């Protein structure tokens, strides 16, 4: 089996270890990974800020880079949702591009989705450790409908104690450009999220989106707590 | 759903929203129940426009001439709805809907044949030409405007009793 | 009156965030309502119900002129006088004129968000007519000269101590912070007002085309008081509140209270059809219905038409992470939260409200709970697009976005950007602001793309 890995810009520049974890998972499972070298950003920052012409530029580039028929896997619910739902919206008046966008949208998987539905990793013998809680990122759950998959994977990590996060579905306050446009609110929400995480007594919090995890890490830092923040790809790579 | 189940569902739903719920078999038992429910010596408004109202009106020595000054109001209502546990007061037949609003204790008599199973059943009957006022009443008046603390008895009745006959 | 405006959203929000009692009240409200809503909805098939409700509302909007015509004919036949008001000023003038014609000195008022939209109270007071708000929450904020911060629980931003002190100061009653005691005080004061008011003013949740009826949903009973006790009743509502028939009402009775407060039904659902008729012992002797347009006829023809399906339940605000953090007043106009972002912009213009378009993390919680399936996130995104195309987005951001596009189209430039960011990070931190760039981790020395083997 072959997949194309879409690293996402946040992972590429801020969290390369998440990309490496995804890579390790695929290698361990014998999946051949290609990393289309021309990839940049999916264009979501522009799309969500109302700059749809600029977003189109990024989208056209993405569609020209991710060609072929292999599944495209990304360790981000938000970026996967952008390609799946944002692109068809951007090209809704351009039949030719719309057809391309729809076909690419059909190939996109968020990592945990792919690991559960295609590779059935949750049925394998994995090991984990520590007390872990999970933040369910908004776009992952509400736009992609990925709710159970990350939990199935966490439960498959033997030795890991999973503790549910109260109000797990509430937004952490990242929101992409939101964190830059309204930082006071973003910080307040990150702190509120941090308080909930601390209340679980977990030593690690995980999730499926680097952006949210970044904001959560900031919230925890502000609360002065040394709770580890790890992308779910990292926990699985460690446990395989 | 049998007629009996509909009555049970109605009373169950009404009880959930803090209404006192009662069920009697006939007029004599109704008199006993009303005498039990309404506090002694308070002024009572009873419109005396139906047979059941006439039956219970005889119980009170202090009948108020109008609802504005009465402490309690005892009346037969237009209908009731099992789905929501609501009683329905309407202006039909010259009734004053305000008698279910101003006195602090409202006692509603519901003849069993006036009970509708669902909201749809009820509104199908009234959709074409409703009377001036129809009010669905579900429990005593309430508010949660202060820190979302439930307080029973704001502008409307502080106490609601429902008797199905 | 609140002096906050939508244009100052960020500053309003920053101030609210530092207000600890406000934050606590908002958290309590959002959490309580959220939990109650979820548990109430578990008793019904929410998805099926909201699909049905959405279709009914869309049909009403698609045929609005015809339904309004039918409503007007039927209500008139039932003895009401129906007025059409093009804008807020016209509505206020019509109401003032009716009140003056009847020599009204004091009017008791039930909750109406539309009257907040037209600033009716202010207008009437200038005309020398006393208006007493009778919903407990509205009464509390009127005593304190404030505006509602939530469309269902207007005084949600105040705690019991603040309300206790307010009552002691303004009403001369002994201080109490017991909600029970405070409610009974209001009951007593307001009962007097109901019985002596020359007129009642109310809003309405729905207007029924087939029968010309108004539907008013309340819990306290004040809505019933103002519509049945005084001799004159004036109802003000916006034109989109139409439902075709009373047969459509059950769907909304099932959805509205559950969405708003988590109740299976509100305590009182009143259906008022015209004025008191011969032989009636109920109803105002005269009923005036003011149908406010205020831009809605235009909205209905455009890309934001679905917003007019809104039934004002407040569920979207209760789940909104931004609203729970900043409270209703930060939004600077009548309607807060996700629905408020969209509606405020539609009714007051982007020029007067564009910062609100950014007041969403696009988390989508609002879409999930909306009982009439308004795609709030999509509408907020559309407003952002309009904000950009109308040149209301800051030029620095526009420049940044152009640079972003150039880089996103060129892997070389993109990679170069990453390297430069990593190299000059300390400088970027210095100028990027501690609350923005300062919250990002240091970029990796070697990006993932250059590590891939």
Structural overview:
- The complex is a heterotrimer of chains A (240), B (165) and C (453).
- Chain A has 240 residues and is of the alpha/beta class.
- Helix content of chain A is 52%, strand content 13%.
- Chain A has helices at 9-13, 16-28, 44-48, 52-65, 77-90, 95-105, 111-117, 138-143, 149-156, 178-181, 183-200, 210-222, 232-239; strands spanning 2-5, 32-34, 72-74, 108-110, 126-127, 131-134, 157-158, 161-162, 204-207, 228-231.
- In chain A, α2 packs parallel to α13 and α7 crosses α9 (149-156).
- With 165 residues, chain B is α/β, with parallel strands linked by helices.
- Helix content of chain B is 24%, strand content 25%.
- Chain B contains four helices and eleven strands.
- In chain B, strands 1-11-6-3-2 form a five-stranded parallel sheet, sandwiched between helices. Chain B has a four-stranded mixed sheet with strand order 7-4-5-8.
- In chain B, α3 (51-57) links the parallel β2 and β3 (72-76).
- The longest helix of chain B is centred in the N-terminal third of the chain and has 14 residues, at 3-16.
- Chain B is globular.
- In chain B, 55% of the residues are buried.
- Helices cover 51% and strands 11% of the residues of chain C.
- Chain C has helices at residues 9-17, 20-41, 46-62, 64-77, 88-101, 113-117, 120-126, 136-143, 160-171, 179-196, 222-228, 249-260, 296-299, 315-319, 321-326, 337-348, 365-369, 376-389, 395-408, 411-423, 425-432, 448-451, and strands at residues 80-85, 106-109, 130-133, 199-202, 206-208, 213-218, 232-238, 242-243, 268-272, 286-292.
- A six-stranded parallel sheet of chain C has the order 1-10-7-4-2-3, sandwiched between helices. Chain C has a four-stranded mixed sheet with strand order 8-5-6-9.
- In chain C, α3 crosses α12, α16 (337-348) packs parallel to α18 and α19 (395-408) packs across α20 (411-423).
- The longest helix of chain C is centred in the first third of the chain and has 22 residues, at 20-41.
- The N and C termini of chain C lie far apart (64 Å).
- The chains are: A alpha/beta (240), B alpha/beta (165), C alpha/beta (453).
- Chains in contact: A-C, B-C.
- At the A-C interface, α1, α2, α3, α4 and α8 of A face α1, α15, α17, α18 and α19 of C.
């Amino acid at each position: 089996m072959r997949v194309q890995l879409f690293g996402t810009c946040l992972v590429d520049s801020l969290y390369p270890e998440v990309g490496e974890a995804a890579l390790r998972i695929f290698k361990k499972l014998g999946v051949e990974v290609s990393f289309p070298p021309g990839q940049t950003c999916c264009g979501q920052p522009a799309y969500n800020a109302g700059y749809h012409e600029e977003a189109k530029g990024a989208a056209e580039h993405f569609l020209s880079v991710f060609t072929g028929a292999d599944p495209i896997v990304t360790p981000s619910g938000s970026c996967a949702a952008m390609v799946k739902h944002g692109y068809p919206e951007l090209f809704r008046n351009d039949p030719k591009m719309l057809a391309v966008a729809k076909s690419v949208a059909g190939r996109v998987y968020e990592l945990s989705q792919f690991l559960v539905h295609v590779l059935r990793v949750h049925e394998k013998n994995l090991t984990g450790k520590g007390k872990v809680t999970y933040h369910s990122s908004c776009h992952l759950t509400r736009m992609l409908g990925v709710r159970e998959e990350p939990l199935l994977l966490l439960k498959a990590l033997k030795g890991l104690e999973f503790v549910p996060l109260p109000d797990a579905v509430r937004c952490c306050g990242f929101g992409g450009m939101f964190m830059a446009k309204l930082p006071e609110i973003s910080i307040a929400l990150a702190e509120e999220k941090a308080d909930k995480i601390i209340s679980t007594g977990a030593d690690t919090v995980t999730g499926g989106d680097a952006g949210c995890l970044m904001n959560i890490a900031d919230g925890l830092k502000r609360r002065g707590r040394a709770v580890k923040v790890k992308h779910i790809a990292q926990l699985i790579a460690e446990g395989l | 759903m049998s007629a009996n189940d509909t009555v049970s569902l109605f009373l169950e739903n009404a009880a959930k929203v803090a209404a006192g719920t009662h069920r009697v078999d006939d007029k004599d038992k109704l008199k006993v129940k009303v005498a039990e429910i309404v506090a002694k010596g308070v002024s009572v408004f009873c419109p005396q426009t139906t047979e059941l109202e006439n039956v219970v009106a005889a119980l009170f020595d202090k009948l108020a001439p109008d609802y504005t000054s009465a402490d309690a109001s005892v009346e037969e209502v237009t209908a009731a709805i099992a789905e929501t546990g609501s009683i329905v007061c309407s202006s039909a037949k010259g009734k004053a809907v305000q008698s279910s609003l101003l006195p602090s204790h409202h006692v509603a008599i519901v003849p069993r044949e006036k009970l509708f199973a669902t909201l749809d059943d009820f509104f199908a009957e009234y959709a074409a030409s409703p009377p001036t006022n129809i009010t669905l009443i579900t429990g005593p008046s309430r508010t949660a405007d202060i820190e979302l603390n439930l307080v029973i008895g704001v502008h409307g009745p502080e106490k609601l009793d429902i008797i199905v006959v | 009156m609140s002096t906050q405006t939508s244009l100052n959203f960020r500053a309003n929000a920053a101030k609210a965030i530092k207000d600890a009692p406000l934050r606590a009240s908002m958290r309590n409200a959002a959490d309580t309502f959220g939990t109650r809503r979820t548990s109430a909805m578990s008793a019904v098939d929410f998805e099926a119900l909201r699909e049905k409700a959405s279709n009914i509302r869309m049909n009403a909007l698609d045929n609005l002129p015809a339904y309004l015509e039918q409503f007007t004919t039927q209500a008139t036949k039932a003895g009401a006088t129906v007025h059409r008001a093009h804008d807020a000023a016209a509505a206020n003038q019509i109401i003032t004129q009716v009140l003056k014609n009847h020599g009204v000195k004091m009017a008791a008022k039930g909750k109406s968000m539309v009257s907040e939209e037209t600033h009716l109270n202010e207008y009437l007071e200038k005309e020398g007519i006393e208006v007493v708000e009778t919903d407990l929450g509205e009464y509390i904020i009127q005593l304190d000269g404030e505006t509602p911060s939530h469309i269902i629980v207007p005084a949600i931003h105040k705690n019991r101590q603040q309300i206790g002190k307010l009552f002691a100061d303004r009403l001369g009653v002994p201080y109490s912070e017991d909600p029970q005691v405070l409610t009974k005080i209001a009951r007593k004061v307001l009962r007097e007002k109901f019985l002596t008011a020359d007129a009642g003013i109310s809003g309405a949740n729905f207007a029924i085309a087939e029968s010309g009826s108004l539907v008013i949903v309340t819990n306290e009973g004040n809505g019933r008081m103002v519509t049945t006790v005084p001799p004159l009743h004036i109802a003000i509502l916006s034109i989109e509140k139409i439902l075709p028939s009373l047969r459509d009402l059950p769907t909304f009775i099932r959805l509205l209270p559950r969405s708003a407060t988590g109740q299976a039904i509100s305590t009182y659902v009143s259906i008022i059809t015209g004025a008191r008729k011969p032989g009636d012992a109920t109803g105002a002797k005269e009923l005036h219905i003011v149908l406010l347009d205020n831009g809605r006829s235009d909205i209905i023809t455009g890309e934001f038409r679905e917003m007019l399906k809104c039934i004002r339940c407040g569920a979207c605000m209760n789940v909104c992470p931004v609203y729970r953090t900043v409270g209703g007043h930060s939004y600077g106009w009548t309607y807060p939260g996700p629905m408020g972002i969209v509606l405020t912009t539609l009714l007051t213009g982007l020029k007067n409200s564009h910062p609100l378009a950014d007041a969403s993390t696009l988390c989508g919680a609002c879409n999930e709970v909306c009982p009439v399936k308004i795609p709030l996130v999509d509408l907020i995104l559309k407003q952002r697009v309009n904000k950009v195309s109308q040149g209301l987005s800051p030029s620095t951001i526009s420049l940044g976005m152009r640079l972003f596009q150039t880089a996103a189209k060129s892997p070389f430039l993109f990679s170069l950007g990453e390297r430069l960011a990593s190299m000059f990070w300390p400088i970027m931190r210095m100028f990027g602001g501690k609350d923005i760039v300062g919250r990002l981790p240091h970029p990796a020395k070697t990006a993932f793309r250059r590590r891939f083997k």
